[in-house]
Amino acid sequence: MIEAEWWEYDSVEEMADAVSGDVGFIIESAIDARDASLLALPGGKTPLPIFDKMIKAKLPWKKVTIVPTDERLVAVDHELSNARMLAQRFMRAGARVIPIGGENDDVDAAGNIADARLQDLPWPPDLVWLGMGADGHTASIFAGPDMQKALDAPNARRAVGVRPDPLPAEAPVPRVTLTRAALLSARTLIITIQGAEKKELLEQAIADGQSSRLPIGRLLAEAEQPIDIHWAP
Ligand SMILES: O=C1O[C@H](COP(=O)(O)O)[C@@H](O)[C@H](O)[C@H]1O
Questions:
Q1: SUPFAM superfamilies attached here (predicted)?
Q2: Could you give the CA distance from residue 115 to residue 4 in angstroms, rounded to a whole number?
Q3: Measured distance CA(163)–CA(146) in Å, rounded
Q4: Could you tell me which of 14, 22, 11, 99 has the C-alpha nearest to residue 57?
Q5: Ligand 1 contact via 140 beta carbon (within 6 Å)
């Protein structure tokens, strides 16, 4: 049974205020408890206004380490790189951003490199923050031939390489992604989405749970922690 609480806002601005406040609280609580905070943050476009609001908050950014939930296998300075997008924002604030990908035609090798980098970090993340594509993918777990590889990876495995088929139009490149086990190991799990179509898709995926054909439904079906879902039109 997926325990999801929906938070609905009138605007993206309102969602950004609320989510940036929640994440600030997660960071401060982690630093109080462990003197450090590890966050896994999504790529894509939806979280950008929230990230921009977060970096204006006076938080102990120097104690924060950030990894992307997934990465497109492009050069680290490529416009499609999630690490580049995160670094441009959070490194300026003082946080450490760890890239987990780079240009690499060998998807399996890329997955091994990403996994090795993540194995070096103090686990679990205080926060895994997920987005969702209009096709129901989350992080870089896409429906298709490599979906089970990411969903069924052993618990100790933190990342795998995937080649979405078909490649998504907005970023048509192979990827690395945190595995289901790594994503669900988070102390806190949140999702941010925008638009009526995604809301309907996510509601259905949650209702279908384990029998969902969508990666987001299959992922959340195994979640043991409550999930906050933030939505703006
Ligand atoms: O490719 C990706 O897409 C999803 C969704 O992005 P959005 O722009 O539709 O919100 C994102 O969560 C993921 O991290 C990213 O690599």
A1: NagB/RpiA/CoA transferase-like
A2: 29
A3: 7
A4: 22
A5: yes
What is the share, in percent, of the chain residues with pLDDT greater than 70?
Answer: 100
- pLDDT tens across 63-114, in order? 999 999 999 999 999 999 999 999 999 999 999 999 999 999 999 999 999 9
> Which atom of ligand 1 sits closest to the CA of residue 72?
16
The domain ranges of the chain are 4-232
Q: Distance (Å, rounded) from C-alpha 208 to C-alpha 157?
A: 26
Q: Is 69 in the pocket of ligand 1 (CB under 6 A)?
A: yes
Query: Ligand 1 pocket test: which of 170, 190, 202 has the largest number of ligand atoms within 8 Å of its C-beta?
Result: 170
Please give the pLDDT value at position 2.
Answer: 83
Q: CATH code for 4-232?
A: 3.40.50.1360
pLDDT along the chain (233 residues), means of 10: 93 98 98 98 97 96 98 97 98 97 96 98 98 98 97 98 96 97 98 98 97 98 97 98
